[in-house]
């Protein structure tokens, strides 16, 4: 089989498959970036929760 014998439909399927893989990798990268951003913010969120709980305790709201 030579290069000239490949159908256009087969080439389009290959290109479509590569585009889908590329999009999936982009989405996965974005999800991982968001996950690591949330994990980086986790200590700050814990401190904010602790401060709020202490303030509520001192105000006799808990």
TrEMBL record:
A Pfam family annotated for this UniProt entry: DUF7554
Residues spanning the membrane: 12-32, 38-59
Keywords: Membrane, Transmembrane, Transmembrane helix
Name of this protein: Uncharacterized protein
Native species: Halorubrum rubrum
Lineage, highest ranks first: Archaea, Methanobacteriati, Methanobacteriota, Stenosarchaea group, Halobacteria
